[in-house]
Amino acid sequence: MGHFFHQLAPENTEMSFQKTIEHGADGLETDVTISYDGVPFLMHDSTLSRTTNIKEVYPNDTAQNAALFSWDALKELNAGAWFLKDKPFSCMGSLSRADQNQAMNQSIYKLSNFLRLADSQNKLVIFDLYRPPEKHPYRNSWINRTLEVILNESGIRPHLVLWLENDMRSFVQSVAPGFQQTMGSKAPVEDLLMDNIVKLNLAYTEMSSEDIRYVAVSAPRAVCVLTRERLLRVCGNVSLQ
Question: Which residues form a coiled coil (predicted)?
Fold first, then answer.
């Protein structure tokens, strides 16, 4: 999934997902925040200070929540120069000159563009969706707005979306029945069946082989995707990779 190749490119940028695709990943993983004017974009941190040049562009707003910026403000920021400056991974020295130039020119990536890229390459997508802070215009409609982008603006085929957010899950299933409902924590099999969960996104250490076999027998539609360690365990036929 996408986070692994953040070692080769600035995280949550177009370049990082292109690298992920080049290395043959089955899917792309990211984090989604919603701008003050309702544009979902990719950002892991609650602020922009670590992964953008906000200190240079908006020096008085470095501590402000990322969701409180308009998209016009966000798209002015560079989201790649920090990667070359801070060199967060030991493999940084192996980047080609072309890769360094590409990294230097990355910007904040819109969710809609991310989804179009995934669809064009037939890749699954999974993302953590962050609820905006208090007094944000989309505080109470964050899921609705995200669904609008996925269903009406991105063009991604629904079966490629592994829907992880637990809030309003029944509503999401009613308007987007093609999404693959995914759970990010362990739960009783009865709950998995009730919520139509078909995938589990868990750390490798959170499920034993016995747990997986039990789910395989009790909920044969469920598939355990252990993306945090970049492993895949298929419960349906109890194959362990």
Answer: none
How many alpha carbons lie under 13 Å from residue 218 in its C-beta half-sphere? 15
Evaluate whether 26 touches 232 at the Cβ level (below 8 Å).
Answer: yes
Contact 41, 74 (CB under 8 A): yes
Distance CA 48, CA 45 (A): 7
CA angle in degrees (0–180, nearest 5) for 202-31-52: 135
Residue 208 DSSP SS3: coil
Walk me through the domains of the chain, giving residue ranges and CATH numbers: 2-182 (3.20.20.190), 184-241 (no CATH)
Per DSSP, 90 falls in state G
- Burial code (b: 16+ CB inside 10 Å, e: under 16) for 121-154 equals eebbbbbebbbbeeebebeeebbebbbebbbeeb
Q: Which DSSP string do the residues of 20-54 spell out, in sequence order?
A: HHHTT-SEEEEEEEE-TTS-EEE-SSSSSTTTS-H
The pTM assigned to this predicted structure is 0.89
Contact 238, 215 (CB under 8 A): no
Pairing of strands 199-201, 223-226: parallel
